[in-house]
């Protein structure tokens, strides 16, 4: 189960879904960055994204999931949202989400991580570059990490030296966004900056292979193995 809260970000209102485990805690926390398909609808409209929050909640993590596309009208075209997406707005969104999570009585604010799938994978990397209090970061097939967005901020891959926590990478070898060559560049940037990381690459899997709501992309065996690795990763670094 989850609830919806609203926070102010640069004079705008951002909905945030909150997933809290049973018990008083203190629990480790996770900021979950959304994937792209729910840019039009609200977060609660996407079964995959809700499942992500529930599975981490059931594993004992308190989670917040900010709606990163609150800057645009719901009926704005997807191409507009892609073209106008700004890293400075996103960093502000993540800061507000982190503050909300850390202020929950059931959460230990010293044990918070960040993760995201697809579009959210780039956001998770970006967030770790701008918030040194994250203790772990997981990037699930995040593309465009090598590309700057509309505000002209540096491409997140160039900011790898700012990451102060271990990074988990989950990728499909049949993906082209990011491609295996892109993933090599991600790993090289982390390695060059002394950032601890572990990458797992799956044969027979492409982009979005954990999204059970997309039968053309979903690969159950690879997805479940990735789930096990992600839970183990966060358990090691946040407990």
State the helicity in percent bands. Answer: 25-40%
Question: So what's the CATH class?
Answer: Alpha Beta
Number of helices: 6
CATH topology (fold) name = Rossmann fold
What would the principal axes of the Cα set say about the shape?
A: globular
Cα gyration radius (Å): 16 Å
Structurally, the number of domains stands at 1
Low-confidence stretches: none
SSE topology:
Blueprint: E1 3-9, E2 12-19, E3 27-33, H1 47-58, E4 62-66, H2 78-84, H3 87-103, E5 107-117, H4 119-130, E6 136-140, E7 167-172, H5 180-192, E8 197-202, H6 220-238
Parallel strand pairs: 3-4, 3-5, 5-6, 6-7, 7-8
Antiparallel strand pairs: 1-2, 2-4
Describe the structure.
With 239 residues, the protein is an alpha/beta fold. It has a single domain (3-238), classed as Rossmann fold, CATH 3.40.50.1820. Helix content is 33%, strand content 23%. It has helices spanning 47-58, 78-84, 87-103, 119-130, 180-192, 220-238; strands at residues 3-9, 12-19, 27-33, 62-66, 107-117, 136-140, 167-172, 197-202. Strands 1-2-4-3-5-6-7-8 form an 8-stranded mixed β-sheet, with helices on both faces. β5 (107-117), α4 (119-130) and β6 (136-140) form a beta-alpha-beta unit. α3 (87-103) packs across α4. It is globular. The mean pLDDT is 96.
Structure described in brief:
This protein has 239 residues and is of the alpha/beta class. It is 33% helix and 23% strand. It has 6 helices and 8 strands; from the N terminus they run βββαβααβαββαβα.
């Amino acid at each position: 189960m989850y609830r919806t809260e609203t926070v102010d970000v640069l004079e705008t209102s951002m909905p945030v879904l909150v997933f809290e485990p049973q018990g008083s805690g203190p629990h480790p926390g996770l900021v979950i960055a959304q994937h792209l398909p729910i840019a039009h609808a609200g977060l609660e409209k996407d079964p995959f994204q809700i499942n992500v929050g529930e599975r981490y909640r059931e594993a004992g993590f308190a989670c917040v999931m900010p709606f990163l596309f609150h800057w645009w009208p719901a009926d704005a075209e997807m191409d507009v949202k892609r073209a106008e997406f700004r890293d400075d707005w996103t960093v502000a969104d993540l800061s507000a989400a982190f503050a909300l999570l850390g202020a929950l009585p059931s959460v230990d604010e010293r044990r918070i991580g960040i993760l995201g799938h697809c579009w959210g994978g780039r956001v998770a990397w970006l967030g770790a570059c701008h918030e040194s209090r994250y203790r772990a970061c997981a990037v699930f097939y995040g593309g465009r990490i090598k590309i700057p967005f509309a505000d002209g901020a540096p491409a997140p891959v160039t900011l790898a030296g700012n990451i102060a926590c271990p990074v988990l990478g989950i990728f499909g070898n049949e993906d082209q966004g990011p491609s295996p060559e892109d993933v090599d560049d991600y790993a090289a940037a982390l390695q060059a900056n002394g950032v601890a990381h572990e990458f797992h690459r799956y044969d027979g899997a492409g982009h979005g292979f954990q999204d059970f709501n997309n039968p053309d992309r979903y690969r159950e065996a690879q997805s479940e193995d990735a789930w096990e690795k992600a839970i183990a990763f966060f358990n090691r670094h946040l407990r």
